[in-house]
Design a protein that fits this description.
Radius of gyration of chain B: 14 Å
Order of helices and strands of chain A: EEEEEEEEEE
Largest sheet of chain B: 7 strands, mixed
Structural class of chain A: mainly beta
Number of strands of chain A: 10
Largest interface: A-B, 25 and 22 residues
Largest sheet of chain A: 6 strands, mixed
Strand order of the largest sheet of chain A: 2-10-9-4-5-6
Distance between the termini of chain B: 40 Å
Radius of gyration of chain A: 13 Å
Helix content of chain A: under 10%
Number of strands of chain B: 11
Order of helices and strands of chain B: EEEEEEEEEEE
Shape of chain B: globular
Shape of chain A: globular
Structural class of chain B: mainly beta
Strand content of chain B: over 45%
Oligomer: heterodimer
Chain lengths: ~110, ~120
């Protein structure tokens, strides 16, 4: 099965900073990659799918990019409400594996 | 609006069985595949299973294959997860998740709507 390696495991940044989170697939998954945000005590929320497509209602400061088997979630200007754990998930085929998560905190 | 409501969780002894249910509303249930995802306390997300919109195709993660099964009843807008031979490692919040696209090949699309989850605690 394809493994999804997410990094870093955690990060701390200041409000207004540009934040990047990376997810690497162990094999080619095309652009079948989604990003989820899970705020403390809440259910996960789909941010981006097909590597680049912003889900309806998600702020435009979130964006996704891809280069081969490397995928990146970027928050262009970190806001206090972005404190959360972020997960990638591949879905080119089953199993739909999640990355280990990245916890984002405000410095 | 889309709503998914899980039920059936609780405290159960190791080796016992439990059946989770998920009742859907606010969308054409028979047009979307549905997933089960779990999250152990303080841990990350673990994908468990998917069933296609018509129930003809299913796939389970290696960690639960042979013990868990997924099914649906489109006439009742309901999804099920039968869990057998439970162990302490199965303790988690269990979520049902609706796929973002209609009529797709099983497992080829992510989920966009999550239920609030039902908690399963396996303990002696």
């Amino acid at each position: 099965d394809i493994q999804m390696t997410q990094s870093p495991a955690s990060l701390s940044a200041s409000v207004g900073d540009r934040v990047t989170i990376t997810c690497r697939a162990s094999q080619d998954i095309g652009n079948s990659l989604a990003w989820f945000q899970q705020k403390p005590g809440r259910v996960p929320n789909l941010l981006i799918y097909d590597a680049f497509t912003l889900q309806s209602g998600v702020p435009s400061r979130f964006s996704g990019s891809a280069s081969g088997t490397d995928f990146t979630l970027t928050i262009s200007s970190l806001q206090p409400e972005d404190v959360a754990t972020y997960y990638c998930q591949k879905y080119n085929n089953a199993p739909l594996t999640f990355g280990g998560g990245t916890k984002v905190e405000i410095k | 609006q889309v709503q998914l409501v899980e039920s059936g969780g609780g405290v159960v002894q190791p080796g016992r069985s439990l059946r989770l249910s998920c009742v859907a509303s606010g969308f054409s249930f028979n047009s979307y595949g549905i997933h089960w995802v779990r999250q152990a306390p303080g841990k990350g997300l673990e994908w468990l299973a998917v069933i296609s919109y018509d129930g003809s195709n299913t796939y389970l993660a290696d960690s639960v294959r042979g013990r868990f099964s997924i099914s649906r009843d489109n006439s009742k807008n309901s999804l099920y997860l039968q869990m057998n031979d439970l162990s302490v490692a199965d303790t988690a919040m269990y979520y049902c998740v609706k796929e973002v696209r209609k009529w797709v090949i099983v497992g080829a699309t992510p989920g966009d709507s999550w239920g609030q989850g039902t908690l399963v605690a396996v303990s002696s």
